[in-house]
Every structure is written in structure tokens, then in C-alpha cells.
Specification:
CATH architecture: 3-Layer(aba) Sandwich
Radius of gyration: 14 Å
Helix content: 25-40%
Order of helices and strands: EHEHHHEEH
Largest sheet: 4 strands, mixed
């Protein structure tokens, strides 16, 4: 069985709910506190590929920092990825990764469905 990884922010209620779902389901997960141990460019690119989404779809577009950095008008995918590398606070959470697939665990019901499909 391949390992589950979660990009987790303990201060986020949805991220804490995701951890609870994993724990209650008996799943062991490698927890990456991504604000402390930020993913690098390659890791973000890999997760984007697994998610099948654009960089903007992995971003917290309502985050004040997103507005401050004028990212709403940015069309360059590479610049959006580099913004997440430099400012991991911009990464949506939680991200659940397993078996070469990933999801953004919002709403948290998506996590249960994802785990059931594995």
C-alpha cells in the first residue's frame, strides 16, 4: 500500500478535519506542515500534474497576500508556481497525495471519496 501524504496547516479547520478523517479511518499519513517545510518548485509542479489543475486552482485566491502580489492579473503559470514556492501561505489546503494521485480536500467529503477509490 502506498503512503499517504498530506500538506497540512494545523491552524486551518479544513486541514484539521482532513487529519481527523485520516486518523479515524486508520490511515497513516506522512504530514508535511508546508508552511514550515515549504514544497519546492518541482514538488508543486508534480502535485499540479497529479491534481490536473492550473497553478491558480491550487492557490488561495482570497488570501490578502494574493491581492498584495497582484496575482489575479498574472497569466504566467511559472510565476504563479514561483509565488507559491516563495509564499507557501498561498497554497490551498489540505492537499492529500497517494498513489500518484492528489486532491485538494475541500470540501472534506472529497477526502473520503478519494480514499475509498484507492
Amino acid at each position: 500500500m502506498s503512503e499517504i501524504t498530506i500538506w497540512h496547516n494545523p491552524k486551518c479547520s479544513k486541514s484539521r478535519e482532513a487529519m481527523e478523517i485520516l486518523n479515524n479511518g486508520g490511515y497513516e499519513a506522512s504530514v508535511v506542515k508546508y508552511l514550515e517545510n515549504s514544497p519546492d518548485e518541482m514538488q508543486i509542479r508534480e502535485v499540479l500534474k497529479m491534481l490536473g489543475v492550473s497553478a491558480r486552482e491550487l492557490m488561495r485566491t482570497k488570501e490578502e497576500l494574493y491581492t498584495e502580489l497582484n496575482l489575479a492579473d498574472e497569466l504566467d503559470e511559472n510565476k504563479l508556481i514561483l509565488a507559491m514556492v516563495k509564499h507557501p501561505k498561498l497554497i490551498e489546503r489540505p492537499v492529500i497525495i497517494k498513489g500518484g494521485r492528489a486532491i485538494i480536500g475541500r470540501p472534506t467529503e472529497k477526502i473520503i471519496k478519494f480514499l475509498d477509490e484507492l
